[in-house]
Amino acid sequence: MDTTIKKSATPDSMFTSKLQGLLRWESFLVLIVFLVCVMNSYLSPYFLDPWNLSDATFNFTEKALIALPMAMLIIAKEIDISVAAIISLSSTLMGLVAQMGAPVYVVAFVGVLAGAACGLFNGVLVTRFKIPSIVVTIGTMSLFRGISYILLGDQVVRDYPDGFEFFGQGYVYWVFSFELVLFAFFALVFYWLLHRTTFGRYTYAIGNNPTASYYSGIKVDKHRLILFTLVGVMSGVASVLLTSRLGSTRPSIAMGWELSIITMVVLGGVSILGGSGTIAGVVLAVILMGLVTFGMGLLNIPGIVMTIIVGVMLITVVSLPVLITLYKNKKAKAL
Amino acid sequence: MLKRLIYSREGVLSIIVLAMFFGVGVISPDFISLSNSVSIFNDTSILIMLALGQMLVILTRCIDLSVAANVAFTGMFVAMVNQYFPELHMSLLIFLSLFIGALLGAINGLFVWLLKVPSIVITLGTMSIYRGATFLLSDGAWVNSHQMSESFIGLPRYEILSMPVLGWMAIAAIILFFWAMKFSVWGRNFYSAGGNPMAAFYSGVNVGKVQFYAFLVSGTLSGLCGYLWVSRFAVAYVDVANGFELQVIAACVIGGVSIVGGLGTVVGCVIGALFIGVVNNALPIIGVSPFWQMAISGLVIIIAVIANATSDKDKARIILRNPNANDEIRAN
C-alpha cells in the first residue's frame, strides 16, 4: 500500500522499495496469522481440531475464489461490486434449470456460464462505452439481483439433482473438502497468471498507467474485458459451490459479500488505486479473515458484530500505511 | 431559451418523467390527481434530500456508501431516546439527529481529508460499522410505534397547505441547495474541487476540506432522514433502509451527476430522484410486481450512464479519484 505514496524516488530505488514494501506487508500478514492461531488455540480448546479447522474453511473458500480475480481487476485499476449479485443470478438460473430436471453437470455448467455472461456484460459496458467500472457495477448490481427477484420473487428453490451437493459439501481426501482443494488449485492458477505470464505483467502496466500501456501496444480494453469475464466466471464457480452447500436458492443469497471480498483483496496489500499487489498477499488475507471469523464464531460473537470488525479491519489496513508515511515525513522534516 | 431548456439533460429528463406520469394517468386517472401527486412527492422526499447530499460528495470525486447505514443508526438512536425520554421536546430530537448524522459524516470526511484514503474504501467500511453499531445499540430489538411519543410520529405528517411537513422539508432543502450551489462561493467550490483539483488547489481552494464539507453535509442530511424515516414508517430496526444507498446514487446518476466529479445540478438531481419515485409508485398501479423494481432501477442507471458517457466522452475515464493530483498537492 505504501508503495503508491513514494513518488519522488528514482525508478530503480522505487522498484526495490516497492519490492521490500510488499515483502514486509506479506511477512506482517504471516505474523498476524500466526498470532491469531496462537490466540485462538489459547481461547478455545476446539480450535486445533483438524475437522474443526476444515469446517472453518467453508466460511471463506467461496468468497476467496472471487477475491483472486478481483485482486487482478483492482490491480488493473478497475473494480466490480456486482459480484454478489452475479452469485444470486447464477444461482437462480441453476435453480430454474434444476427444476426442469437437468443433470448435475448441466446445472453446474449453467452456473458458471451465467457468471461468465454477467462478467462479460460488465466488461462490455466498461470498455465499449468508457464508463467508470464503479458506476457500471452499481447498476448491474441492482440489475442482476433484480432479475433474480423477477424470476423467483419470494420463492426458494430446493430441488437439486442427486450428487449436486458434492461441490459444496463433498470431501476429496480426509479433511480436505472439494471447496478447499478447488481454492488451492485456483490460487496456484492465478499466481501463475499474475506473476508468471505477460498477461499478468500487462495487468500491472495497465494499473500503473493505462495511457502509457495503450501507447506501448497493450490491448487495454481487451485486457479489461478478459479480467471482467474472469471475475464473472469465478463468481459463477463460487455460486455453484454456495448453492450446493446451502442446497437452496433464494434471490437474497450472498447479500453483502462484495464488502468482504474487497476487504480480503485490500487486506492482502493490493492498492485500491491500482498497480500493486500480489496473489500471495491475498491468499494470506483470506486465511487471516477465515481464522478471525472462525475464532469469533467459537467465542459465540454474533455475525453482525463480525461485520463491524471486518469494517474496522478494512479502514485500518488502508489508513495505517498513510499514517506511517505521514509520521515518517514529519520526522524527516524535523531533522 | 426554450430550445436550450428542452435539449438540456434536465429538460429531456423532465419530459421522460412527465410522460411516464401522464402515461400511467391514462391507465388510472387517480394517479395524476393533485393529492396523489403530492403523496408521490412526499414519498420521494427522503430520497431527494439524501440525493442532494450525495451529489455534493460525488461532485468532489468521492462517493458515500454509508448514507443508508447512517439513516439506520441515527433513526434507531433518536427512536430509543424518544422511547426512554418521551417528554423530551421534538426540536431537541431533531437537533440530536442532525448532530449524530453530522458526526458520522465527519468521520468519513476526516479520513478522506486528512489521510487521503479513497472514499469508496472508507465508506464501504463505515457502512458495515454503522450498521453493526445499530445492532449493538438496540441489541437487535425493534422500537415500535406504541413506544414512540405522539409528536415524534406526528411531526412529519403534520399538513401545511395540504402537504405534509416531510414534503416541505424536501422543498426547503431543494431551495437551499439551489441557492448555495449557484450563488455561494462555498457551493461553487464543490464544482471546482471536483472539476479540476489541481486548478482548484492553485486558486486557493482546500480540496480536502471541501471534500470534508461534502461528507459533513451528506451525513447531516442522512441524520435528519434517519429521524424522518423512522417516524414516517413508525418503526426502527437494524435493517432500516438496507441497500438504500444504491437508490440514492442511482438518483444522482440518473439526474446527470457525473461520477468523475465536477458535473451535476440540483435540478437534475431532484428530477433523478423523482424519476425513481414515479417508477416506484407507478409499478403497482400498472400491475407490475414490486419484484421488478430493483431490476428496473438497475437498467435505468445503466441507460443513464451510457447516455452520460456518450455526451461527455473525454471526461469519463477516471475511476475512484486521481491519485497523482493528491500526491502533487501533498508534495507542495
From TrEMBL, chain A:
What are the coiled-coil residue ranges?
Answer: none
Keywords assigned: Cell inner membrane, Cell membrane, Membrane, Transmembrane, Transmembrane helix, Transport
Q: GO cellular component annotations, sorted alphabetically? A: plasma membrane
What molecular functions are annotated in GO for this chain? transmembrane transporter activity
User: InterPro entries, alphabetically?
Assistant: ABC_transp_permease
Compartments reported by the entry: Cell inner membrane
> Topology with regard to the membrane?
Multi-pass membrane protein
Membrane-spanning ranges = 21-44, 104-126, 133-151, 171-194, 225-242, 254-273, 280-298, 304-327
* This protein's record includes keyword Secreted: no
Homology family: Belongs to the binding-protein-dependent transport system permease family. AraH/RbsC subfamily.
Q: What does this protein do?
A: Part of the ABC transporter complex LsrABCD involved in autoinducer 2 (AI-2) import. Probably responsible for the translocation of the substrate across the membrane.
This protein's assembly is summarised as: The complex is composed of two ATP-binding proteins (LsrA), two transmembrane proteins (LsrC and LsrD) and a solute-binding protein (LsrB).
> Know the name of this protein?
Autoinducer 2 import system permease protein LsrD
Organism for this UniProt entry:
Marinomonas alcarazii
Taxonomically, what lineage is the organism?
Bacteria, Pseudomonadati, Pseudomonadota, Gammaproteobacteria, Oceanospirillales
From TrEMBL, chain B:
- Membrane spanning segments where? 12-34, 40-60, 67-85, 91-115, 160-181, 210-230, 251-279, 291-311
Q: Which InterPro entries match?
A: ABC_transp_permease
Q: Keyword Transmembrane helix on this protein? A: yes
Report membrane topology: Multi-pass membrane protein
This protein's source sits in the domain of life called: Bacteria
The record's section on Pfam families has: BPD_transp_2 (PF02653)
Which Gene Ontology CC terms are recorded?
plasma membrane
The record's subcellular location field reads: Cell inner membrane
Q: Which GO terms describe its molecular function?
A: transmembrane transporter activity
Classification via CDD domains? TM_PBP1_transp_AraH_like (cd06579)
Q: Which UniProt keywords apply?
A: Cell membrane, Membrane, Transmembrane, Transmembrane helix
Family, per the entry? Belongs to the binding-protein-dependent transport system permease family. AraH/RbsC subfamily.
Report what the protein is called. Rhamnose ABC transporter membrane protein
* Taxonomic path: Bacteria, Pseudomonadati, Pseudomonadota, Gammaproteobacteria, Oceanospirillales
